[in-house]
């Protein structure tokens, strides 16, 4: 955007007092959240609407955002879920024929506050070295002292339960209701493409609110359980851990994704921890230890399972590891029909390398 | 799978003389390959007929042969040395063709030499247009409608069936040599004759021309375990109709949604896996219909390509170096990213900047040459620039061409004759990008320029912003221009000479004002393959301006 078009200044303030200057994008206002960065070069729309980003301010390392507009069908939930956007170049005009509107209108409609013109490279290397922290963006208040007061009121992500804020309010059902494969999906903040990945494989999917108990879901007669992705700290979700324990006891196949993976680990007695920076992007290398094959994965998580706990746990087999930092990316419970991955096999955005996991899940369900 | 320890001595084939379509890129890849193999303790023998290369410096290989790239020379080398394997993928099509010729004569078999980094089957499939087309159909990937002609009569019949516009692509030629577009019946006969004559096998492909479709290139690496990574995606600013080597290209892709890109990535991986079982680099080209985003494959090269060198520079990921390691048996997950030194070589680089490549033509040296760009590559080199947005990278590239332009205009060389401008937009030559901006300055609507050039409107909007900011700048002079405006102009790639031109002052005055008075100075950013996610150790930086 050229300054020929009048631009309102905006400021980004980090919890440690560091400030970055830029220009207002989206709605004029103030927003807070935990700041994190994503290195994907495509898929901004899918990222904005991913419920796992709830309460997070997103920094796009890709320097142009908005280039191909907004296509209403390419969303992962019904609204923008990020708390704010920080970017270098915010591009309102677009050419894509399949797009419905420009990014500025979309942000304004969704009341999203953002900041552009930021030296995102400097910001990202700063966060990389200091770790994730809370931040505030404002285009209406420039007094840093006042913003800092507001920022101090923002709770730490550690210990925060957020799934119940983004989950469906009541159950809904998708796919062919006559299908022999019925999957109950515990919606902890599900991305639409997880549901689509199941219905595309012929499943009938029941999507249940995060706090639905096991007894209620089992009444629906599912052949398998999908525990979805979602925001927040898994250790603050005893209700979901309890549900998963009951599913395991009942011997019904289970597949966990991202937060669902962490919940499965917790149910198996493994603790989780908040990572220094987390993994967010579409290029994270993962090795499947069972096949020896590697896959480029789409990731978005700030918590992880404690590797020592997993290694010491005789009931868990490590199936996938991250080739960069050797964190655990996938597990399988030895005495149960349950497995999970830390990354996003459903992609959207990101590579499709890991879609086979849905096939594996269906096979597991069918063989049961 | 670890390194194959039976490979103790490897022959690398160079690309021969520098010609249009095959320049120093292959010197770059060959040099990287030689270094990469030697650091593994492998004895490297090199053949190249071109002494004006880095790869033939005495320090680069154990044995260097400055000999004609012929089978006879290969035999001489194999007689003199115990060679275990030949790596023909670093020397472009020339090296691949020589390797194939030697294979057909049974040379490799006779001397017990393995071919690594590619297989003969892949060369055959990818260079033979008809085989390629059939394979694509077999694996369910779209291609432009086409048919092979081995005679003049056959070609005429095919043209009648497919209709115009058409492309004629001779088999086994380099840089699109002998090929071209045919817009109507009148041009067809001559074009067909030329194509048949250019092909060593007297064979051409007559193909429907997808003029104006968006064009993309993906650079891939694959290892023995069939792990594949897409190292770089390059978008052509100039749509289908202009040879990639003659197109302005941009990375990362600027106008692709994730949906479309991932589909393309899946197709590229499937294509690479379908052409044979080899470990190394591969280049795949696609065309995308801007109307409905349907994708067709254009070609696949089972080797390090001209674009691989660009992709290496664009991402920081040393493709030829890693491809060489893969060729001797390493898998991607066993290797470290040589830039971060702490993360895996198996990943897909993330860019937090934009690169723009602009070809460099030298039409002055080719008196009488047709200067219109098309299927046959005419540029003699290229420049690549890095910026924190497309505009900056584009202007920096144009400043680097050494053609006495200071950037994208604002240097007193604007063309003002509308007829000439419109003719230039419709008949692209080396200066079309300048004329796009000139057209905008004269008030030609973006929609008109889009219609004539078929360039994605997003790129045109980016150029139009430059026109707008220049109009804004002209309202000021050196004494009253606000610092924010200078910052924005520097961020959009304007050099001080351009700003001086717009303000009506001297370059020195602009420098004095912005540097000494306003403190607007360059900052330097690292090209680290990972968008800053990991700490890296590299001496590869670019300069830019941050607010």
Report on this structure.
- The complex is a heterodimer of chains A (368) and B (547).
- By secondary structure, chain A is an alpha/beta fold.
- Chain A contains eleven helices and 19 strands.
- Chain A has two domains: 9-152, Glucose Oxidase, domain 1, CATH 3.50.30; 163-367, 3-Layer(aba) Sandwich (Rossmann fold).
- Chain A has helices spanning 44-48, 103-109, 120-130, 144-152, 163-166, 192-199, 214-218, 238-250, 259-267, 307-312, 356-367; strands at 9-14, 19-26, 30-38, 56-60, 64-65, 84-86, 89-90, 113-116, 133-138, 172-175, 182-187, 204-209, 224-227, 254-257, 272-288, 294-305, 316-322, 328-333, 338-341.
- The longest helix of chain A has 13 residues, at 238-250.
- Chain B is globular and about 80 Å long.
- Chain B has 547 residues and is α+β, with helices and mostly antiparallel strands.
- In chain B, strands 14-13-10-11-12-15-16 form a seven-stranded antiparallel β-sheet, with helices on both faces. A five-stranded parallel β-sheet of chain B has the order 3-2-1-4-5, with helices on both faces.
- In chain B, a hairpin with a 5-residue loop joins strand 10 (214-222) and strand 11 (228-236).
- The model of chain B has no long low-confidence stretch (mean pLDDT 94).
- Helix content of chain B is 37%, strand content 17%.
